[in-house]
Amino acid sequence: MTDLVSIARSLFASGKGILAADESVHTATARLASYGVEAGEEMRRQYRDLFFGAEGVEQYLSGIILFSETLAQKGDDKKRFPESLSERGIAPGVKVDLGTEPLPTSPEELITQGLLDLSERLQEYKKQGAVFTKWRAVVRIDGDQLPSAAALHENAKRLAAYAKEVQSAGLVPILEPEVLYAGKHSRMRARAVLSETLGTLFSLLEETAVDLGSVILKTSMVLSGSESGKSDTPEEVAADTLTVLLEQVPAEVAGIVFLSGGQTPDQATENLRAIAALAKKENAPWPLTFSYARALQEEALALWKGEPENVPAARAAFLKRLEKVSAALG
Ligand code: 13P
Questions:
Q1: Which of 2, 287, 295, 330 has the most CB atoms in a 10 Å sphere around its CB?
Q2: Closest CA to 255 of 284, 229, 281
Q3: Across all residues in the chain, what is the average pLDDT?
Q4: Mean predicted confidence (pLDDT) in 54-71
Q5: Which segments of the chain does DSSP mark as H helices, in order?
């Protein structure tokens, strides 16, 4: 087994998953502002330390996805974050895309940028201790019009180019084509769009000769749009999500992780429980786990409010949620 395959597989250690803590400066600022916290660089460092410094997280976390700024920052223990995470057996990863830009031929749709100087940045991230990476593309559903085939194709092409480059730099790629939960669409429409998104992605990966053995897919669950007025049972979510994954994701991929996408922490936990149980029943060929940002952070952030005296209560809430999400894996 190559190093990359073993790193990728280690992220699926039993009962463990990945914390996405890779919010860009822009997203972290908006997220913290929504909890009344004004964020500069030091406050963002404290925000990361709130989660990474919680005692015992290594029981539930195999990896944490960092933002590039965080790779160079230190925790309250005075150690650089990647170093203290590695010492506790948590693999440090890094988000390497540089956000989105409009697709020129369909400007309502977004394509992800960041390929131009990627190879130099990867060398730097590797030196700083990262062992895996993430690239996120967004897929917006609007009626039967969006997404366009052109947007799906361009995003898939860039995801494939990213994966190829990352593997040749000796890092594991996580590919995240996020089908957005926001919208009025039905669950059936979300299912069709996820299927087309993944079909396009895996055909481009094959064309680009990406080694699937060290590829991790980060996917949305199949859900009725958040403004559809419909709520899905975990069993409905699990059945539709797994049907698409079994149809579109080759058995060789190292594993599949789920994003939470704006679901409540309980919804993301219960849907994961149903998906994991059904995957076991149907003998799905790949391991599955979580890679949540909001669903893991939300309860802790509501308690923290940027105040040092709230750190113990916020960390306790984070650990409690981690315990529930980990238990949902079965
Ligand atoms: P959410 O779990 O909040 O969707 O975030 C996951 C992620 O990594 C988004 O890029």
A1: 295
A2: 284
A3: 98
A4: 98
A5: 3-10, 25-33, 41-52, 68-71, 81-87, 118-127, 149-168, 187-207, 234-248, 265-281, 294-304, 311-328
User: Are the C-beta atoms of 51 and 100 separated by less than 8 Å?
Assistant: no
Q: Which residues of 37-60 are buried (b: 16+ CB within 10 A; e: fewer)?
A: bebeeeebbbbbbbbbbbeebeeb
- The answer to whether residues 325 and 20 touch, using CB atoms and an 8 Å cutoff, is no
Instruction: State which H helix or E strand residue 174 sits in.
Output: strand 172-179
Ligand 1: which atom is nearest the Cα of residue 260? 2
Residue 282 falls in the annotated catalytic set: no
What mean pLDDT do residues 8-28 have? 98
C-alpha span between 306 and 43 (Å, rounded): 8
CATH no. of 4-328: 3.20.20.70
pLDDT tens column, 259-286: 999 999 999 999 999 999 999 999 999 9
Per-residue pLDDT at 40: 95
Please answer whether residues 140 and 189 qualify as being in contact, where contact means their C-beta atoms are separated by less than 8 angstroms: no
| For the chain, percent of residues with pLDDT exceeding 70 | 100
Where in the chain are the domains? 4-328
Q: From the CA of 113, how far away is ligand 1's center (Å)?
A: 18
**Sign of torsion over alpha carbons 78, 306, 296, 137:** negative
Pocket test for ligand 1, best of 98, 260, 289, 299 (most atoms within 8 A of CB): 260
pTM: 0.98
Whether the pLDDT of residue 61 is over 90: the answer is: yes
Using the Cα atoms of residue 24, residue 192, residue 230 and residue 321 in order, give the sign of their dihedral: negative
- To test the pocket of ligand 1, the residue of 61, 132, 179, 259 to mutate (highest count of ligand atoms within 8 Å of its CB) is 259
Q: 92: exposed, middle or buried (C-beta count within 10 Å: 0-12, 13-18, 19+)?
A: buried
Residue nearest (by alpha carbon) to ligand 1 atom 10: 136
Range 60-79 average pLDDT? 98
The tens digit of pLDDT for each residue in 23-51 reads 999 999 999 999 999 989 999 999 999 99
